[in-house]
Design goal:
This protein is an alpha/beta fold and about 400 residues long. The protein has three domains: about 1-130 and about 295-325, Rossmann fold, CATH 3.40.50.720; about 135-290, Dihydrodipicolinate Reductase, domain 2; about 340-399. The protein contains 13 helices and 17 strands. It has helices at about 10-20, 25-30, 60, 80-90, 100-115, 130-140, 155-165, 170-180, 185-190, 195-205, 225-235, 295-310, 375-385, and strands at about 1-5, 35-40, 55, 65-70, 90-95, 120, 145-150, 215-220, 235-250, 250-260, 275-280, 285-290, 330, 340-345, 355-360, 365-370, 390-399. The strands form two sheets. Strands 7, 8, 9, 10, 11, 12, 13, 14, 15, 16 and 17 form an eleven-stranded mixed sheet that branches. A six-stranded parallel sheet has the order 3-2-1-4-5-6, sandwiched between helices. Helix 4 (about 80-90) links the parallel strand 4 (about 65-70) and strand 5. Helix 1 crosses helix 12, helix 4 packs parallel to helix 5 and helix 7 packs across helix 8 (about 170-180). The protein is elongated. Bound molecules: L-homoserine. The site of L-homoserine has 11 residues, from helix 7. L-homoserine binds near residues 189 and 294.
Length: about 400
C-alpha cells in the first residue's frame, strides 16, 4: 500500500518515523508493506532520511497507487479542501486534525460512507489514547450519560509543573512547546479552545449529534492563581482543565472549564502530558481511558493504527455517524447544576447559606473561599453577588 503524508510537523514526521521503524511488524498487522510515496510540505527537509517530498498536492491526488493519505497539517484550510478532494477521488484519509473533524467531520464522514471509504481520526482526541475507536465500536450497546475528560496535554503539563514543582506559567509553557505538545499558537491550548474541539468530537460520538464548538462555553487556565491552588490543596482537590458533555432535556451540552477535582476522583491523579477520559454509561457505569495526550510518537502511533485499519478495510466503510448540527439540539447547560468553589474578598459572614464548607486563607485576612451545594447557572450567578461586602475573586466548578 502506497500512502502519503500531508504536513511534516511534529505528528507527520512521527508518522514517517513509526512507519519506517516498525515496517516489519506493520506488514504482519495489515498483510502488506506500507510505502510512504509522497510527503507534502512547503518546507524543505534536506536532512530527512525520507526523500519523497513535494510541494504540490496534485502529486498525491493524481497518484492512482496512493490509497491512504495521512493529514497532519492542522487547521481548516487547505486541509478541508485537500481532504474532500482526496475522498472524492477514492482515497482513504486519516487525520489528527481535531479542528477539521469538529468543524467538517459530519460532511467528510458522509462522503467517505457514500464511497465505501474511511475517514478515521483516532489521533484527534487524547493523542495516543484509544478513545475514538472504543466510542464508535465498544461502547455502542447503551446510552452514555456523561463524558468528562482532561483532553489537553499542554495545559495538564503546565498545571502539573506549576503546582507540583513551583514552575512559572511561562516557563512551563515554553517546556511544553519544546517537547512538541503545544499547538502552533498555544493560545488554543491555554484558553481551552483545543479541549473545546475535542469535547465537541466526543459529544458527537457519544450522543450522535454534531455540536457547534463555537457555541461551547470555554474557559482556559490563565486565570488560575497560586491562592486558588492553595485552597484546592487544603480542601482535598486538584485543579484540572476539564471538558464535559452531557445529554440534557434541551439538547446536548458541552463545556470546558478549570475545575476542582476531588483527590479521590481518578482524574485528579492524571499529571504531566497525560490525558484521562471518563465515559459514564447507563448500564455500563464508568469506563476510564488514560495515556499520553500529546507528543510526536504517541500521537503518530494513533495515526498509524488508523492507517492499518484503513488498509484492513479497503472498500468497507467502518460506520462512524452522527447527525448534522442543529442549533435546537445543542443545550447551553443553564439547567445543569454543579457544586462550586467561590473565593471572595471581604469578611466571611457568620453563616453562608447553601455552602458546605467555608475556608480561610493563610496569607490574607481579608478573603475566604466557600464550596457550594450544587447550583444551576442562575443560582450561582445570584449566589456570588448575594454576600454583602464580599466580591467574588474566582469561581470554579467542582466535578
Ligand atoms: N496541543 C495538544 C495538546 C496536542 O497539548 O493536547 C494534542 O492534541
Amino acid at each position: 500500500m502506497k500512502i502519503a503524508i500531508m504536513g511534516f510537523g511534529v505528528v507527520g514526521s512521527g508518522v514517517g518515523e513509526v512507519v519506517t521503524k516498525n515496517q516489519e511488524m506493520l506488514v504482519k498487522k495489515c498483510g502488506e508493506p506500507i510505502e510512504i510515496a509522497h510527503i507534502l510540505d512547503l518546507r524543505d527537509f534536506p536532512d530527512s532520511e525520507l526523500k519523497c517530498f513535494t510541494k504540490d498536492f496534485n502529486d498525491i491526488l493524481n497518484d492512482d497507487e496512493v490509497g491512504v493519505v495521512v493529514e497532519t497539517m492542522g487547521g481548516i484550510n487547505p486541509a478541508y479542501d485537500f481532504t474532500k478532494k482526496l475522498l472524492l477521488a477514492g482515497k482513504q484519509v486519516i487525520t489528527s486534525n481535531k479542528e477539521l473533524v469538529a468543524t467538517h467531520g459530519t460532511e467528510l464522514l458522509q462522503i467517505a460512507r457514500e464511497r465505501n471509504l474511511n475517514y478515521l481520526f483516532e489521533a484527534s482526541v487524547g493523542g495516543g489514547i484509544p478513545i475514538i475507536r472504543p466510542m464508535y465500536s465498544c461502547l455502542t450497546a447503551g446510552e452514555a450519560t456523561d463524558v468528562f475528560g482532561i483532553l489537553n496535554g499542554t495545559t495538564n503539563y503546565i498545571l502539573t509543573q506549576m503546582f507540583q514543582c513551583g514552575e512559572s506559567f511561562e516557563s512551563a509553557l515554553k517546556a511544553a512547546q519544546q517537547k512538541g505538545y503545544a499547538e502552533a499558537d498555544p493560545t488554543a491550548d491555554v484558553e481551552g479552545f483545543d479541549t473545546c474541539r475535542k469535547i465537541a468530537i466526543l459529544a458527537a460520538l457519544a450522543f450522535g449529534k454534531a455540536i457547534d464548538y463555537k457555541k461551547v462555553s470555554t474557559e482556559g487556565i490563565t486565570k488560575i492563581s497560586a491562592e486558588d491552588v492553595a485552597y484546592a490543596d487544603k480542601l482535598g482537590y486538584s485543579i484540572k482543565l476539564i471538558g464535559h458533555c452531557k445529554k440534557l432535556e434541551d439538547g446536548v451540552y458541552a463545556g470546558v472549564f478549570p475545575a476542582f477535582v476531588p483527590k479521590g476522583n481518578p482524574l485528579a491523579g492524571i499529571n504531566d502530558v497525560f490525558n484521562g477520559i471518563i465515559v459514564k454509561g447507563d448500564d455500563l457505569g464508568d469506563v476510564m481511558f488514560y495515556g499520553r495526550g500529546a507528543g510526536k510518537l504517541p500521537t503518530a502511533n494513533a495515526v498509524v493504527a488508523d492507517v492499518v485499519d484503513a488498509i484492513k478495510h479497503q472498500n468497507v466503510n467502518i460506520v462512524i455517524k452522527w447527525d448534522e448540527h442543529k442549533d435546537e439540539n445543542q443545550s447551553q447547560g443553564d439547567s445543569l447544576a454543579y457544586a462550586y468553589y467561590v473565593r471572595f474578598s471581604g469578611v466571611a459572614p457568620a453563616n453562608v447559606p447553601g455552602c458546605s464548607v467555608v475556608a480561610f486563607s493563610e496569607s490574607s485576612e481579608n478573603e475566604f473561599a466557600v464550596l457550594t451545594e450544587p447550583k444551576n447557572k442562575k443560582q450561582i450567578d445570584g449566589f456570588v453577588n448575594s454576600l454583602e461586602g464580599c466580591k467574588p475573586i474566582s469561581i470554579m466548578r467542582i466535578i
